[in-house]
Design brief:
The chain is an alpha/beta fold and about 325 residues long. It has helices at about 10-20, 35-45, 55-60, 75-85, 100-110, 125-135, 165, 170, 175-185, 270-275, 280-290, 300-320; strands spanning about 5-10, 25-35, 50, 65-70, 90, 115-120, 145-150, 190-195, 205-210, 215-225, 235-240, 245, 250-255, 265, 320-325. A nine-stranded mixed β-sheet has the order 14-13-12-11-7-10-9-8-15.
């Protein structure tokens, strides 16, 4: 079986997906679209397909599935349009930059004939799968955690510091960490936190406390102006006399006991698109589009991550405890 796929958005992440799809023998790339025609033409030539003038042109070219790789604030319209037209949709994170937008997509996915998958690639990295496996096997029962996901700057590319494009810093970077919290520990029950503005024209430093329904408590931090000092992403998970530590998507360790041998995984030499989970993520989406499985990351996952972002913004702006779910 094969499927015709179009890519909407020819920037960095659109290129990553297009190159992966080009190598999948089940995929026929029918076009690359972008608001910048030169960018679409460049990427189309690289992956040996045609440039297209927007989503309608991809659909006219016969696309049965589309990868939506547009800026954060421009996800809702193309995703809903494609789903309502019967296409399968892979959308880059975030699902949307408002709870109303996320709800609109979730509703569209619920009535759609095609499948919808959201792009939380870290779920498919070896480091976080290493952690998830040990939790699922019961080798560690998490009690507390520390999670951080920083950025070195919001200057390159320049749009990362433009709230009108990103929807806000939490939507651009920390949303990955929020999804990872749900992936590892389940649903969040309460959020508290503080934030400040230091370097950019928005809140750019966050210190948060997530209390999960399981009772686990996690401190969560994210700062947008740290420099790129390794590791800018780190998770520490604490059980009873046991610990898991991840450092970015490079390596992870598991200490199962006070004097037990430490287990480790090292992904330093892996190719980027494999290390970061993009290859596996895209393969699973194509599997789902071909009817071989359900989507690996669902519309509900996308909605709950958006809800967490909104809960944090409410907590740091209004003070006090914000309880989830926000919709009742």
């Amino acid at each position: 079986m094969s499927i015709k796929v179009g890519v909407l958005g020819a920037g960095f992440i659109g290129r990553i997906h297009a190159l992966i799809l080009k190598r999948d023998p089940r995929v026929e790339l029918v076009g690359i679209a972008d608001v910048a025609p030169a960018a679409a033409a460049r990427l189309a030539a690289e992956v040996e397909t045609r440039p297209a003038d927007g989503l309608p042109a991809l659909m006219d070219a016969g696309a049965q599935a589309v990868f939506v790789c547009t800026p954060n604030v421009r996800h809702v319209e193309p995703v809903v349009t494609a789903l309502d037209a019967g296409l399968h949709v892979f959308s880059e994170k975030p699902m949307a930059t408002s709870l109303d937008g996320a709800r609109t997509i979730r509703d569209a996915a619920g009535r759609a004939k095609g499948v919808y998958q959201i792009g939380f690639n870290r779920r498919f990295s070896n480091t976080y799968r290493f952690a998830k496996q040990r939790i699922e096997e019961g080798r560690i029962v998490p009690c507390m955690a520390q999670m951080k996901h920083n950025r070195g700057e919001l200057q390159q590319p320049v749009w990362t510091g433009d709230r009108s494009v990103t929807g806000g810093y939490l939507y651009e970077t920390p949303v990955h960490l929020f999804d990872m919290g749900r992936f590892l520990f389940g649903e969040v029950a309460e959020v508290t936190g503080s934030a400040r503005q230091s370097a950019y024209n928005e809140l750019d430093g966050f210190a948060m406390l997530f209390t999960f329904r399981s009772g686990l408590v996690a401190s969560v931090t994210s700062v947008a102006h740290t420099s790129w000092l390794f590791p800018y992403e780190r998770v520490e998970i604490y059980g009873v006399h046991s610990t898991i530590v991840t450092e970015e998507l490079e390596r992870a360790w598991f200490s199962p006991g006070v004097r037990d041998q430490v287990e480790a995984v090292d992904c330093f030499h892996m190719p980027f698109d494999q290390k970061w989970g993009y290859i596996e993520q895209d393969r699973l989406f194509i599997d789902a589009a071909l009817g071989e499985r359900t989507p690996a990351v669902t519309a509900e996952d996308g909605y709950r991550a958006t809800e967490l972002v909104e809960a944090v913004y409410r907590a740091v702006r209004g003070g006090g405890v914000v309880r989830l779910p926000l919709d009742g």
